[in-house]
Amino acid sequence: MISCEKTHSFKPxxxxxxxxxxxxxxxxxxxxYNLRFIxxxxxxxxxxxxxxxxxxxxxxxxxxxxxxxxxxRQAVAQxxxxxxxxxxxxxxxxxxxxxxxxxxxxxxxTKVVYSKHGTVNEIIKEAHHGLYDACVLGRxxxxxxxxxxxxxxxxxxxxxxxxxxxxxxxxxxxxxNRNVLLCVDDTESSMRMADHVxxxxxxxxxxxxxxxxxxxxxxxxxxxxxxAQARSLLLEAGMDEDLIEEEVAESRNAVGAILDKGKxxxxxxxxxxxxxxxxxxxxxFFPGSVSTGLLRRVEDFALWISK
Length: 307
Description:
The protein is an alpha/beta fold. The protein folds into 2 domains: 19-168, Rossmann fold, CATH 3.40.50; 180-306, 3-Layer(aba) Sandwich (Rossmann fold), CATH 3.40.50. It has helices at residues 33-41, 73-100, 119-130, 139-150, 156-161, 188-200, 223-237, 254-264, 282-285, 290-297, and strands spanning 19-25, 48-56, 108-114, 134-137, 166-168, 180-183, 209-215, 244-250, 269-273, 302-306. It has a 10-stranded mixed beta sheet with strand order 3-2-1-4-5-10-9-6-7-8, with helices on both faces. The radius of gyration is 20 Å and the shape is globular.
């Protein structure tokens, strides 16, 4: 078990706010990537609270009420069977693993729902309702949100309402990767991500943060001013100043520059903001398609995205 004793800090020791994370769980073993990331990222698992969330998939043959999409009696029986067997088993296995790794049993909660409006919608609904600090997805969850990204027309409202950070976890951590690459630009979402990163790293000295700006031709943004604003947010959220670095890269391809920096620096996570934009316009959902490009190509680190 991991000790809950705080690591040393240059600041006076103050109690850190407990972080509450929503982790999606399924029968697919690859979804454990999010569990493994959490285990690797937080040195003291007793500093966090976890809700493990399972969405029972809706079978095509289920008959639903046309008014409120509630299942008929036969569908209810099938749903309860899935909840009691497959869903609960997947959640219990995940719970046992993370508790064995050092998370307090009392701080791990489980929840099973059936897919009334689709898996992605159920995750979003729970994330909004629970006011979690972040929604942490494994590999299968990545494909769910990938589908949502591709179908920008039918999910335009959902993208507008995604006001919580999403952590997308790819391959299991090797135990060697450290630190967070914070992509900084002149958008409000970028600064909100800086605040989120600072909050999540409050009281931790396990990870450094590199503020990174990929300056493309024609850009009028002032990196120094952007870094000063982001640094202020990181410090205000609780980070130690000696853990914050900054770097500017000149590049015609922001996605390539971020991927290159992330891989060479062996970062455990790359964090960035995104804009909501107008319905049906992918370039406005993801300015320059940077978030989309990273989502499709990232493999070596987790991707944190926030509006």
